[in-house]
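Job type: complex structure
Entries:
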Amino acid sequence: MTAADAAIPAVFKPIRSIGRSTLGALRMVGSVGVFSVRGVASVFTPPWFPGQLWRQLVAIGFFSLPVVGLTAIFTGAALGLNIYTGGGRFNAEQVMPQIVALGITRELGPVLAALMLAGRVSAAIAAEIGAMRATEQIDAMRTLSTDPFRYLVAPRLLAATLVLPLLTLIADIIGVAGGWLVAVRILDFNSSVYIRNTANFLQFWDVGSGLIKAAVFGFIVALMGCYHGYNAKGGARGVGRATTHAVVSSAILIFASDYFLTTLFTHT
Amino acid sequence: MTDIAKLEWRGVRKRFDDAPVLDGLDLSVASGRSLVIIGGSGQGKSVTIKVAMGLVRPDAGEVLVDGKNLIGPGLKWGGGRSRRNLFSRVGVLFQGAALFDSLTVWENVAFRLINADGVSRKDAKARAIEALARVRLQASVADSHPSELSGGMQKRVGLARAVVANPEILFFDEPTTGLDPITSAAINELIVDQVRGLGCTAVSITHDLASARTIGDEIAMLHGGKIVWRGAPAELDRTDNPYVRQFVDARADGPMTSVVQER
């Protein structure tokens, strides 16, 4: 505590705490903003590192397939059961295929795939870049005339932004299949009627809006991982903190941006 | 010795939070000379070389290479041309070697060649293996990963990476920290060989006096963010400078004691 802090009357201390927190939050928003602008600029300006991009596409996309697929099939199945139960209260069980398809493609597919990616990828990015920061590898990269933003950040941002829509498309298909499985195997729906109802009901924009959301979420997941890893301080403890912050902030930003994007898409 | 220093810190100041680390540092190294900076922990040795490497931005003052200001408050920092120019002329051996875990040994050594200089992977690998041979590592380690090597071998790989592009200035950050005396002696010998072989200018920081005496043409002592003594290695044992005496004699009492107790 500084002498100036000690001189503040006790009654004003809560106000000081609020002020400090507000300033800290604003500083972080500014810092994330500058980081994201630098990151995006690095994506569009040479030199590019295609090898790094390929590596990230595989690490983020291919290796996330099992976890995204499993999440989608169980979510689709559970959603189907819930809609059947809820619909039964006003004799509307037959709308189950349409509601499952709509819920998965517009909302649950992109959000759940993004949350899985936040847990798996954002944490991994923060840990890897944070460990590189702690062991001076990022400094070393700079002295080797290579910009860490272009080599580390840009490929991850681009890969996650490109790959999450693809994962979401797969999650959509698997999620709808989960609903179909429950409907046909447990609830005695007719398979071909279920599929026809789903296909006839879905519009391109239902899937398209989910994929646009997914691209935004992918960017957020990679950005939070890179930002917190790049700014990690304090050795192993700092890397652990960066990992936690990356996952938590990714999840919060995914939900917040989901609301705003949904609002935007609803009014367009 | 030439008139214009190869590398010069001129009035460099740096604070972290409220604590001054460098307090108007003036220091220069002539071309082809090896300067070793010694000093207690927390006296600003790492910051001194990080400012010269372009990794830490000084609050005031400037760093000149061949008389040209490359690092200073008036110059663009970010991806500025002067800083990129500096990076292309230096090689660095970091304290923990700072090898990239995800790359093989040869990819580490050839990192600059492939990613910054546009050398083909085939040619870069050949040059990396050549550099590994210069630090007495066999080509068989080239395809290993850094985690498979001992600390001493990692330092050698770090040294090979630092010298592979024939830099004009080499920085060594605590090159023998954490190594046994035999490996330390081997690393010191390699450093001397490489610096002389390349004819480059070297700046090292270390706590290890044996290392300082071996690799330095000159030794400077940093205390309180300033140089408090400078001389030839042989003068370390003859000087009456109280800071040097306390450091060399490894005494707890002396002018640096109050700083130690405060920490």
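Summary: Chain B touches chain A at residues 50, 53-55, 79, 84, 87-88, 90-92, 94-96, 98-101, 111-112, 115-117, 161 (CB under 8 Å). The mean pLDDT of chain B is 90.
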